[in-house]
Amino acid sequence: MDRVTPATRDDRVFTATRLLAFVIVPILTVAWAMLWISPDRSGDLFAWPVKPPMTAMMLGATYLGGAWFFGRVVVARAWHTVTLGFLPVTAFAAILGLATILHWDKFTAGHPSFILWAILYLSLPFLIPLVWRRNAHRDPGPLVAAGWRVHGPTRWIVGGLGALLATVSVVLVIAPDVLIATWPWVLTPLTGRVLGAMFALSGIVGIEIAIDRRPVAARAIVQAQAIAIVGILAGLARASGDVRWDAPGAWLFAGGMVVVLLANAFAAYGGAGRNPADAAVVSGEENPGTPIEADVLERA
Fold first, then answer.
1. pTM
2. DSSP secondary structure letters along 96-153
3. Number of domains into which the chain is organized
4. Average pLDDT over the chain, rounded to an integer
5. Is the pLDDT confidence value at 3 over 70?
6. Is position 1 within any domain?
7. 216 lies in which domain range?
8. pLDDT at 148
9. Any idea what the Cα angle at residue 231 is, between residues 57 and 271, rounded to 5°?
């Protein structure tokens, strides 16, 4: 591994990182088409029959958001603009890998989609953090974006919502039966854990935004999250018959998706202020002898 020095924090995206993203994009795009466009044919097209269609479309919408994010990685000019997406995706892939092992008999053995599914979710939980860890040493850190930070209530709201979603994820993964009975559409232990992966993805995004606090670092993954949530809400409308709208959980789910989207979007695009101390460091006032790379700030 490269020795980490200020000179190596050049914000570059390694070729290996781009290559992994490039391979993932078409896979996720095809999976979106299988699950969101043709949810009733998941038994023929996908790794297993995903029922009801609402669950298939929720997973498909998440894949479309993932395709957008990894597309951003392929063309990213600066590592800090995509760094926040890698750990949430790792959690998502790891939970789906665990679900695959626990429910192996529910999948369509020998189907090309299942073979690809198994390869991805038994390898990506290791490959994604590997490339993230190597590339993370190139992150210039808080000096990016001239001291702009997510502050105050916005930070706590986003982080709190993320923690709540992560908690729901833990319950769905460890004890899906706890929530299956009250969920607004039909779940099985397998689909409950699949939903748990999606909740972990969104939850860790919120937690990372609150910890990292750089709006520019959040934008690519928030854009991906927005695509996924819009797709999920459209799926709710399209598969309305799958949903028990007389149950409070249905409205809590739909409303919660909207709240998470608005909170994270505000943090990434509007809920930031300038920290005078950070700004002083960036401008060189605190330590005039420390040069700041102009191209790093420009790419933010």
1. 0.87
2. HHHHHHHTGGGS-TT-HHHHHHHHHHHHHHHHHHHHHHHHHTT--GGGGGGGEEE-HH
3. 1
4. 88
5. no
6. no
7. 6-299
8. 72
9. 140
